[in-house]
């Protein structure tokens, strides 16, 4: 396994150079990641909860957690992707930390810069150094979570419900399950679930579900040669025609047009 398979550092400038839909679409990754934002501001949705972010914010996103990141070319920072590190001690849930202490900000920045030197330089014992530095990043993260307002806050019932819904969507969005099905599984009414999602992230429950399906459809259209009818079936749509209408309404182009452009 190469060093690059174990940990990756992705500057935000590389993310914003790509297609905007890839950055902002609701999606998830198979590896945990820590976003270290050093300049700029915007909004980020993680696990059904939307918050504003600014400079010196650290956002931890566990593996397989649905999220969307609003980002412009004026936002700077680094994504630390802990791929290939199953033994790394990292938080189980998402965290959004606002780091106000300059010394603590510098601590993480120095760790990121040290990781980058090890990844770039192919120095002796780089693999060992990278694993130790990644461990120090995880310690830094745990400390800030523990110190945040004298201990982590217990999320309110609305955020717990929204996070539960987002987790179920991430697990089952390829099925034909409706918002009513998800609400029943969570033990609430569809109306209550929609009200809560509106409160926590400014989207209805139907919007969150549709955005996750369409972002996956965009990825499949851009990155594979799978026929459109197969993509529609794989994402739980009743027919290719229904999928095409839903896709065009969300993406602003038909699946065929979108694929040609990417």
Automatic annotation (TrEMBL):
Signal peptide segment:
none
Keywords tagged on the record: DNA-binding, Transcription, Transcription regulation
- Upper lineage ranks? Bacteria, Pseudomonadati, Pseudomonadota, Alphaproteobacteria, Rhodobacterales
- UniProt domain HTH araC/xylS-type: residue ranges: 163-261
Supply the name of the protein: AraC family transcriptional regulator
Output the superkingdom of the source species: Bacteria
Q: Which InterPro entries match?
A: Homeodomain-like_sf, HTH_AraC, HTH_AraC-typ_CS, RmlC-like_jellyroll, RmlC_Cupin_sf, Tscrpt_reg_AraC-type_HTH
Matching PROSITE patterns: HTH_ARAC_FAMILY_1, HTH_ARAC_FAMILY_2
Q: Name one Pfam family in it.
A: HTH_18
Residue ranges that the Swiss-Prot or TrEMBL entry lists as coiled coil: none
Single Gene Ontology MF annotation: sequence-specific DNA binding
Species this chain originates from: Rhodovulum kholense
């Amino acid at each position: 396994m190469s060093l690059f398979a174990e940990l990756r550092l992705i500057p935000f400038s590389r993310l914003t150079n790509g297609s905007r839909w890839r950055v902002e679409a609701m999606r998830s990754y198979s590896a945990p990641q820590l976003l270290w934002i050093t300049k700029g501001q915007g909004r980020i949705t993680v696990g059904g909860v939307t918050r504003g972010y600014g400079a010196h914010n650290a956002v931890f996103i566990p593996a397989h957690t649905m999220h969307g990141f609003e980002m412009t070319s004026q936002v700077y920072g680094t994504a630390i992707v802990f791929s290939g590190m199953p033994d790394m001690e990292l938080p189980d849930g998402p965290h959004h930390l606002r780091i106000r202490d300059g010394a603590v900000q510098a601590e993480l920045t120095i760790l990121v810069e040290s990781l980058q030197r090890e990844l770039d330089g192919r120095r002796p014992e780089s693999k060992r150094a990278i694993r130790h530095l990644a461990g120090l990043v995880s310690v830094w993260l745990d400390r800030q979570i523990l110190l945040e307002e004298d201990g982590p806050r217990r999320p309110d019932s609305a955020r717990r419900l929204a996070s539960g819904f987002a987790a179920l969507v991430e697990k089952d969005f390829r099925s034909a399950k409706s918002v009513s099905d998800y609400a029943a599984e969570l033990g609430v009414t569809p109306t209550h679930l929609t009200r809560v999602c509106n409160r926590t992230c400014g989207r209805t429950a139907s919007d969150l579900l549709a955005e996750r399906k369409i972002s996956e459809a965009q990825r499949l259209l851009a990155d594979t040669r799978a026929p459109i009818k197969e993509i529609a079936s794989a994402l739980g749509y009743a027919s290719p025609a229904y999928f095409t209408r839903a896709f065009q309404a969300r993406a602003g182009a038909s699946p065929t047009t979108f694929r040609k452009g990417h």
